[in-house]
Design brief:
mainly alpha, two-stranded antiparallel ribbon, MetI-like fold, disordered C terminus, 3 domains, 15 helices
Length: 329
């Protein structure tokens, strides 16, 4: 019974991919004459859609594909590195952040920005200075035993994942305004590689922290304690012991995060215009004055799907062969 249900679910999840693939190789009559499913039986395959996409007749495809690849892999690598550090700290160290210190950070940040902006600083300089002021006031304030709520590790971890609960349009619009203000000071981030990379790093960072936190929890502490007894620095323990033991988790987290970044549409729509548009934006613009040409749209979607399928297959082979799996020796 379980295998039957799994088989039904497999068909349910694989069919959209199959439908995209077969539609990419259909001619216009085969698309509009009704549903056809089996090549050479229901319809004669045609390369028209693929030819239209690859020849540039439907617009430049290679550039958005390259943009998605560069931005996706760079942002995911940064998020995996930074998120792993944060997750490890949440698992191995006791965090205590007082509510009063958090309020001091917010008040000092806003007040510092307004004061520096009034003093004639540029937007970028005022933001950086306000951050330094907020840290310089809130860190000492956190050491004072003020009454009130104290946030522990579980609260901080929930705060990370709660960032994904906000409607994306709120963050996208605020980020657009921030990038526009910084652009007036000479820091061009709209429609740039680093603007999209930093955006997607922050976008996927909560997912990395949440996933890697569970992987680090499952690691034996005895190995790290033995290294501490031998006076090994914490940074070496993390880089040379913890990360190699967590390779399987790192690979899985990287792949899941890459999927989020690769398929993201809203931020790319708002923060890019032409130069650094990604594959989802290119596919969304495939409609023409002749109507919805599903054979070309499916061919473009197939081009977007293939890199992720190849990456999944390659990493799955690595994990099965044991190359990507860590362990104790």
């Amino acid at each position: 019974m379980v295998f039957a249900l799994c088989g039904v679910w497999l068909l349910f999840t694989v069919f959209p991919v199959y439908w995209t693939v077969v539609t990419a190789f259909k001619s216009p009559p085969a698309v509009f004459d009704g549903p056809t499913y089996v090549p050479w039986y229901d319809f004669t395959p045609s390369l028209r859609g693929v030819r239209e996409v690859l020849s540039g007749e439907r617009g430049d495809v290679l550039r958005p594909l390259l943009n998605s690849t560069l931005i996706g892999f760079t942002a995911t690598a940064l998020a995996t590195l930074l998120g792993s550090m944060a997750a490890y700290a949440l698992v191995r160290f006791e965090m205590r952040i007082r509510l009063v210190a958090a309020l001091v950070f917010v008040a000092a940040g806003i007040g510092g920005y307004l004061g520096l902006d009034h003093a004639g600083w540029s937007d970028g300089g005022a933001m950086g200075g306000a951050l330094l002021v907020a840290l310089a006031t809130s860190v000492p304030a956190n050491r004072i035993p003020f009454p009130g709520k104290v946030f522990a590790n579980a609260d901080i971890a929930f705060w990370f994942i709660s960032q994904r609960m906000f409607p994306p349009i709120v963050s996208a619009f605020a980020l657009y305004l921030l990038y526009a203000r910084l652009g007036r000071d000479g820091f061009q981030l709209l429609d740039t590689f680093w603007g999209m990379t930093l955006c997607y790093t922050a976008f996927v960072l909560p997912v990395v922290v949440w996933l890697m936190r569970d992987f680090f929890r499952s690691l034996p502490v005895a190995v790290e304690e033995a290294a501490l007894v031998d006076d090994v620095p914490r940074w070496r323990i993390f880089l040379e012991i913890v990360l190699p033991m967590s390779r399987g988790g790192l690979v899985a987290t990287f792949l899941i995060s890459l999927g989020f970044v690769w398929n993201e549409f809203l931020f790319a729509l708002i923060l890019t215009s032409s130069k650094w548009q990604t594959m989802p934006i290119m596919i969304s613009g495939q409609n023409s004055v002749r109507g919805t040409e599903w054979w070309s749209i499916s061919a473009a979607a197939l081009v977007a799907i293939l890199p992720m399928m190849i990456a999944t297959w390659f990493i799955a082979r690595m994990m099965r062969s044991g190359i990507a799996l860590g362990g104790l020796k």
